[in-house]
């Protein structure tokens, strides 16, 4: 029939010209009633409240597949929903559901509440300034292949809901989708785009899973994580005009796996405040600022991610950021690969930092972080720059093939550098300058055309038990007012000199083994005054020990043998002891 009589029949076809309002027909329907809505505009005299089980409303489509059955409220909708579903087995299919007046931002066009397991499929929802679809209570609905637009929030998952949202297109909203309170469930294979605030907001203590969604061109954040959410994001693609792709703050503890973030106007991922979370195997590229920025007291686990081709630095930590960063590939960024400032105290383990245009790793202020088992290669400037009062632990890293220095320690920086392999950096493998006082122990330093270890200005670093070999110019040079402790090193096979001390250089050189240099084993010049005790200087291509200019210094108990020229050559006005 056409609905003019009893609504107790199992199937009711409703024509737009039906004198009895669709609102009345549905609100009074018996359980199990199936309403088939003919094409056209169905005016609603009041909100539709579906509290009976197994009620079904189905629209019809035009021949071209477009929706034809439209539900339009004729009442003032600023504070009332169009649909409110609380019962079981309800199906809404192929309907256009509108909220025609500018609604309050908290008012939803469609609400699914209670323990409803309603199915909403193939519908178009127009929010008109309010909320498009709100899923709340303990509902477990299935929402699929719907289009939602023009809402403050396209969809809200709230309460204890466990919704399944799949294949929806949500666009031109403030925020496309929000998870709040204790919501779980999932949002899969949706397109969330062209929103003014965010593609996704996950807040409260929500644990919603977002998988295989396309989040594009939101003018705020692609994804905003806040409060204590534990939402999970897997295999999503975030791109376009976002300020930041993923932004995690407050006490959020999200899980991000295999997401791709590209082309953001700001950063790909920003983690701040007290946020933690796990970030695994994500790809971040072509951002306008840093690929990933971590600040304040954030402490993530950040493993096996790829950060590349960003217009800023790759990974930047500031403030009191913490965390563990391992197995990441950070490459081809316009600025620094990894940059740390402030009071950062983090662990970097097993990362590859490759071919970044500025520094590979840059540390300053009061940074106290640990770098171990990383590969830092092909940097446009120094492989690792340690500045100001930074004091890192740098252990078992490979630092190679940089366009400037391998390791640069300057300012008042300190640091413990052990068991690193530092090679083939163009300017020198290691430059220690300023008033730095770091300790270099058991490193292998080799193959630089600019020299092995260069100590300048007023640096007082310790160079202990290293192997320094096959560097051009000098394997180890002390200039200016440098005054290092050089103890028990093997210094060999250089194309130039073994040790050079000149300018006003000083320092103590004890129990080192020097051999097979093309020129002098040890050269002391300028106004320098080193102390050299118990060293072995063997097989020099020129003299073993040369002291010239106005140099002074103390030399005792050294073994000098196999020199091509004199064992000891004293020249100029030098006055050594």
Secondary-structure content class: mainly beta
The percent of residues in helical segments reads under 10%
The helix tally amounts to 1
Cα-atom radius of gyration = 35 Å
Strand content: 35-45%
C-alpha termini separation: 119 Å
The major β-sheet equals:
24 strands, parallel
Q: Spans with pLDDT under 50 lasting ≥5 residues?
A: 1-8
What can you tell me about this protein's structure?
- The chain is rod-shaped.
- The longest helix is centred in the first third of the chain and has 6 residues, at 22-27.
- Residues 1-8 have low confidence and may be disordered.
- 51% of the residues are buried.
- The protein contains one helix and 70 strands.
- It starts with 10 loop residues before the first strand and ends in a 7-residue tail after the last strand.
- The chain is mainly beta and 577 residues long.
- Helix content is 1%, strand content 41%.
- The strands form three sheets. It has a 24-stranded parallel beta sheet, with no helix packed on it.
In short:
The chain contains one helix and 70 strands.
Present the secondary structure layout:
Blueprint: E1 11-14, H1 22-27, E2 34-37, E3 40-44, E4 48-50, E5 56-59, E6 69-73, E7 83-85, E8 91-93, E9 96-98, E10 108-112, E11 119-121, E12 124-126, E13 131-135, E14 142-144, E15 147-149, E16 153-157, E17 164-166, E18 169-171, E19 175-179, E20 186-188, E21 191-193, E22 198-202, E23 209-211, E24 214-216, E25 221-225, E26 232-234, E27 237-239, E28 244-248, E29 255-257, E30 260-262, E31 269-271, E32 278-280, E33 283-285, E34 292-294, E35 301-303, E36 306-308, E37 315-317, E38 324-326, E39 329-331, E40 338-340, E41 347-349, E42 352-354, E43 361-363, E44 370-372, E45 375-377, E46 384-386, E47 393-395, E48 398-400, E49 405-409, E50 416-418, E51 421-423, E52 428-432, E53 439-441, E54 444-446, E55 453-455, E56 462-464, E57 467-469, E58 474-478, E59 485-487, E60 490-492, E61 497-501, E62 508-510, E63 513-515, E64 522-524, E65 531-533, E66 536-538, E67 545-547, E68 554-556, E69 559-561, E70 568-570
Parallel strand pairs: 1-2, 2-5, 3-6, 4-7, 5-8, 6-9, 7-10, 8-11, 9-12, 10-13, 11-14, 12-15, 13-16, 14-17, 15-18, 16-19, 17-20, 18-21, 19-22, 20-23, 21-24, 22-25, 23-26, 24-27, 25-28, 26-29, 27-30, 28-31, 29-32, 30-33, 31-34, 32-35, 33-36, 34-37, 35-38, 36-39, 37-40, 38-41, 39-42, 40-43, ...
């Amino acid at each position: 029939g056409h609905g003019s009589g009893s609504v107790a029949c199992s199937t009711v076809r409703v024509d737009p010209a039906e004198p009895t309002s669709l609102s009345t027909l549905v609100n009074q329907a018996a359980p199990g009633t199936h309403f088939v809505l003919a094409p056209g505009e169905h005016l609603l005299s009041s909100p539709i409240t579906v509290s009976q089980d197994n009620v079904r409303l189905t629209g019809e489509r035009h021949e071209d597949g477009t929706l034809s059955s439209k539900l339009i409220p004729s009442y003032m909708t600023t504070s009332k929903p169009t649909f409110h579903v609380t019962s079981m087995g309800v199906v809404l299919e192929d309907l256009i559901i509108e909220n025609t007046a500018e609604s309050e931002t908290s008012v939803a066009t469609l609400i699914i509440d209670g323990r409803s397991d309603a199915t909403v499929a193939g519908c178009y929802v127009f929010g008109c300034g309010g909320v498009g679809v709100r899923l709340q209570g303990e509902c477990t609905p299935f929402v699929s292949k719907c289009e939602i637009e023009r809402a403050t929030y396209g969809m809200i998952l709230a309460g204890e809901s466990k919704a399944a949202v799949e294949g929806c297109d949500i666009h031109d909203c403030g925020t496309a989708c929000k998870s709040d309170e204790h919501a779980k469930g999932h949002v899969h294979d949706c397109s969330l785009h062209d929103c003014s605030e965010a593609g996704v907001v996950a807040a409260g203590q929500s644990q919603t899973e977002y998988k295989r969604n396309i989040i594009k061109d939101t003018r705020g954040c692609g994804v905003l994580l806040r409060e204590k959410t534990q939402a999970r994001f897997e295999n999503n693609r975030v791109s376009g005009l976002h300020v930041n792709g993923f932004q995690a703050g407050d006490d959020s503890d999200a899980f991000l796996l295999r997401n791709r973030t590209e082309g953001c106007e700001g950063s790909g991922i920003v983690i701040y405040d007290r946020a933690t979370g796990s970030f695994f195997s994500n790809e971040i590229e072509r951002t306008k600022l840093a690929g990933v920025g971590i600040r304040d007291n954030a402490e993530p686990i950040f493993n096996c991610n790829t950060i590349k081709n960003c217009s800023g630095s790759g990974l930047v930590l500031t403030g009191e950021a913490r965390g563990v960063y391992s197995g990441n590939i950070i490459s081809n960024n316009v600025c620094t690969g990894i940059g740390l400032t402030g009071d950062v105290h983090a662990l970097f383990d097993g990362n590859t930092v490759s071919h970044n245009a500025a520094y590979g790793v840059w540390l300053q202020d009061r940074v106290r972080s640990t770098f171990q088992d990383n590969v830092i290669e092909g940097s446009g400037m120094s492989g690792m720059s340690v500045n100001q009062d930074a004091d890192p632990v740098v252990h078992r890293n490979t630092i190679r093939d940089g366009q400037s220095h391998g390791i640069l320690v300057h300012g008042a920086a300190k640091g413990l550098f052990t068991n690193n392999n530092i090679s083939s950096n163009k300017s020198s493998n290691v430059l220690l300058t300023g008033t730095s006082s770091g300790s270099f122990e058991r490193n292998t330093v080799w193959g630089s055309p600019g020299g092995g270890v260069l100590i300048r200005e007023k640096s007082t670093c310790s160079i202990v038990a290293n192997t320094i070999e096959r560097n051009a110019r000098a394997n180890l040079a002390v200039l200016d007012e440098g005054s290092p402790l050089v103890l028990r090193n093997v210094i060999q096979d250089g194309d130039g000199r073994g040790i050079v001390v000149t300018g006003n250089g000083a320092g103590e050189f004890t129990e080192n083994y020097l051999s097979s240099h093309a020129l002098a084993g040890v050269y002391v010049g300028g106004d320098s005054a080193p102390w050299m005790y118990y060293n072995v200087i063997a097989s020099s291509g020129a003299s073993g020990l040369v002291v010239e200019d106005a140099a002074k210094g103390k030399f005792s108990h050294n073994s000098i043998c196999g020199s091509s020229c004199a064992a000891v050559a004293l020249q100029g006005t030098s006055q050594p002891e």
